[in-house]
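step: validate -> pass
step: tokenize input -> pass
step: predict -> running
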Amino acid sequence: MVVDTEIRKIGEQELSNVVNILRVSFNTVAAEFNLTKENAATNAAFIEIHDLLEMKKKDIDMLGLYLCETQIGFVAVEETKQKTYYMEKLSILPKYRHKGYGKKLMDYVFKYVKRMGGEKVSIGIINQNYILKNWYLEYGFIEKTIKKYPHLCFEVCLMEKKV
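step: predict -> pass
step: emit ->
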């Protein structure tokens, strides 16, 4: 059950905490799929504060999920062309998973995108992460394509959902 939560924009003073949340959250996936900084440098398990500062410069919205004033989750939302928004780096600290917090963040993103006039949300995930893929499918995302990028050691499943 989701109680006493708040979702708010991340301030610059909170970025070091966001780095920690992303590293801890994505480290579980990095361990499962043998990701390293060498074979998946852009994975959030290896994020640095300068990466978040670059996101801020690009006007990518960064949102934190707080439980009783403690940040337990994160998501980034980037406006692209043709009324599509990218949802990136959705993460919940491992000890808070499977309690509805990830869904709460997604629900918020979809309401936010709708308010901004967006028509769909797009994501990219590790194609072989079947548990995560099924979670997104159950939420209503559909698979659009599978891509192999030369700088990554895995295939990426691109998914989207209309707002």
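step: describe -> Residues 5-121 form a domain with the Aminopeptidase fold (CATH 3.40.630.30).
step: cleanup -> pass
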